[in-house]
Amino acid sequence: MYCLDSTFCIDLANGVPGAIDKARELDKRKERLAIAAPGLTEFLVGAFAQGGKRLARALEFVSQLEVLDVTEPLVVDAARLGGECARRGSSVGNLDLIVAAVAKHHRATILTKDSDFSRIPGIAVETY
Questions:
Q1: Closest to 43 in 3D by CA, of 78, 8, 91, 3
Q2: pLDDT tens digit sequence for 33-52
């Protein structure tokens, strides 16, 4: 399973060639696609701000994804991951930590261009 980061969703919506190619590849392989609830929020904020056709396309796209909920144990794991990053001297944003904990729990690979995820221990990350 792939857990789509908001960067991938935004790039796909903006027609970035690498994101389009990756989406076609995943579709061809019939990969299971999901998005963590915080990533969904990040992606939809821009779509709601733009409204119209952009919002309609974004809502249609996300309706095809499995939304992975955030639970208290996952938030605690996100904090643990953040603490590990801080001890190593690198900070990672809270939303990225939550997305990472959700993906880790579901044994999903995070699909992103955000380099912050590469600093979080114990998660699978793929770029495009």
A1: 8
A2: 999 999 999 999 999 999 99
